[in-house]
Amino acid sequence: MTTKIFLVRHAEAEGNLFRVAHGQYDSNITPQGYRQLAYLRRRFQGERLDAVYGSDLTRTHTTASALYVPRDLPFRPLPLLREIRLGQWEQMSWGEILRMDRQMYVDFNKRPDLWQVQGAETFAQVRDRMLSAVRQIASENPGGIVAAASHGAALRTLLGTLQGMSLEEIGRTGHGDNTAVSLLEAEGEEIRVVFRDDASHVPAGESTFGRQSWHKDDAATEPGLWFDTLEEGPEGRTARAVLDGEETGRVAVVLEPDRARITDLALLPSWRGRRYGVQLLGQAVQFARARGRETLVLACPPALAGYFGRYGFVPAGGEMVMDLRRRVGEIPEV
């Protein structure tokens, strides 16, 4: 009996948007990610699904909800489907990682067989547990049609392995965009890849890769900011953003009893309009959440309300407010 397994990469999450390394850090889906999920849900309209799995992280649970909620199916969390554990890289900006160890950064994408970071999994370990995951799913659903939401590096490793590649060879393959769909067919011990990394359901204007360049570069590098902490304590943090040794902007967050407040978030004029501002915002989000705050607020002129609205802030009481809690939200219609 043949079991069909649709593998889905999660929708755009905070790490993708803020350009921060999120392996097993539990991040939320972004507003653009929710729009991608609306298109994913439409893609699967009319498709029979007998079960829906996903890693136990919020971004994959949310992605899976586009498939299990319309069918009134339960969500089946499977930790084996998690992203690679990044060890000391977790929550570092990709710009900081590139500055700290360029060769290891390149190896992460191009030579996964050589990549090793303190406290992290190896790609061989990821390969083995992802294989265990799909075998478990197939054994639990003989002859069924199943979907499973997982993560970029983990899926790239699994799919390349099932196509007969070594880890070194996988480093020469491409990456799947957010909500990209792949299809496996499992029969007995044999698992084959029917197709992989298809994100044709996402319009170009909603694609994460459509506004990023790292996946096109031969070494998978990109100009990324790193953050030099100028002041940090129980009352907040101030950091300057740096690129190529030059200060590009600053971000400051003050901790209030029940929330965190951005008091400064600005790029120098010569760096504006190049999508670096959102990386400053990402530092504020991570700092506030790590200090136990569930709400992030800022005051901004009306002309900038639309900008912050794109990233999850909503007007409230004359300010802009972002909910930092990890939770599965409602997917919009498209």
Can you describe this structure?
46% of the residues are buried. A hairpin with a 2-residue loop joins strand 9 and strand 10. The protein has helices at residues 14-18, 31-43, 58-68, 94-100, 102-110, 123-140, 152-162, 167-170, 277-290, 305-309; strands spanning 3-9, 51-54, 75-77, 145-150, 181-187, 190-198, 226-233, 236-243, 246-256, 259-267, 295-298, 314-316, 319-323. Helix 4 (94-100) crosses helix 5 (102-110) and helix 6 packs across helix 7. The mean pLDDT is 96. The protein is globular, with a radius of gyration of 20 Å. The strands form two sheets. It has a seven-stranded mixed beta sheet with strand order 7-8-9-10-11-13-12. It has 334 residues and is an alpha/beta fold. 29% of the residues lie in helices and 25% in strands.
Task: Give a short summary of the structure.
With 334 residues, the chain is an alpha/beta fold. Helices cover 29% and strands 25% of the residues.
Distance between the termini: 36 Å
Largest sheet: 7 strands, mixed
Low-confidence stretches: none
- Please state how the strands of the largest beta sheet are arranged side by side: 7-8-9-10-11-13-12
Strand content: 25-35%
Radius of gyration: 20 Å
Properties at a glance:
six-stranded mixed sheet; alpha/beta; 334 residues
